[in-house]
């Protein structure tokens, strides 16, 4: 089994790589999907070379970041605690996960990463940049996938409600106006925040919460009404993070 430090050392060898025209990279060619965004293909390549493939989509790994996140969730190896060696999934605006990198260090309020297909600094595209770079990140993080490696990469999966699904629906429709408050509102807001949505768990269901609810419903193909009924409630816990 590969060791965490082996993965990090191998990833560091690619720092400074600059892509060719039209996203040309050896990582895309190796995976069989050339001239496409390659953050996930690079990370798959690193793990594959170290003898620790993460077969989310095929024996080589994954090219589509939501597929990688969904695979880690299905394996019970997903959470919100950063650890060196973890796959960190990002959403820099937009409706879904669209970037991934490797955690190489954890600091106060931030993580240190190595990422492919990103820009060297804050200027430029963070998810479709020009090379492999070391980055410091504190925002845009959706969650972490924990590979099975030597060296202690994976903390226990995040606690799940009893039975592995959503907590019982509170039995009332959460909507606004008027302003609705309660522990059920706070629970829903906290779960949305854990999924990567920018929402404060203050227990008050106001316009900001309703707007996030509508966006979430649209993303998951639910009726878009901003009302937390039983289906929206259950989907908040049970649907894969995308």
Domains, number: 2
For the biggest β-sheet, the strand order reads 1-6-2-3-4-5
* Main beta sheet: 6 strands, antiparallel
Overall mean confidence score, pLDDT: 88
The percent range for strand residues is 15-25%
Radius of gyration based on Cα positions: 19 Å
Helix-strand pattern? HHHHEEEEEEEHEHH
Question: Short description, anyone?
Answer:
With 242 residues, this protein is α+β, with helices and mostly antiparallel strands. The protein has helices at residues 4-12, 26-31, 39-49, 65-74, 183-194, 207-219, 230-238, and strands spanning 78-79, 87-90, 99-107, 110-118, 131-137, 141-145, 180-181, 204-205. The chain has two domains: 4-145, endopeptidase fold (from Nostoc punctiforme) (Alpha-Beta Complex); 180-237, Muramoyl-pentapeptide Carboxypeptidase, domain 1.
Structural summary, described in words:
- It is built from seven helices and eight strands; from the N terminus they run ααααβββββββαβαα.
- The strands form two sheets. A six-stranded antiparallel sheet has the order 1-6-2-3-4-5. The chain has a two-stranded antiparallel ribbon with strand order 7-8.
- The chain has two domains: about 5-145, endopeptidase fold (from Nostoc punctiforme), CATH 3.90.1720; about 180-235, Muramoyl-pentapeptide Carboxypeptidase, domain 1 (Orthogonal Bundle), CATH 1.10.101.10.
- The longest helix is centred in the last third of the chain and has 13 residues, at about 205-220.
- The chain has about 240 residues and is of the alpha+beta class.
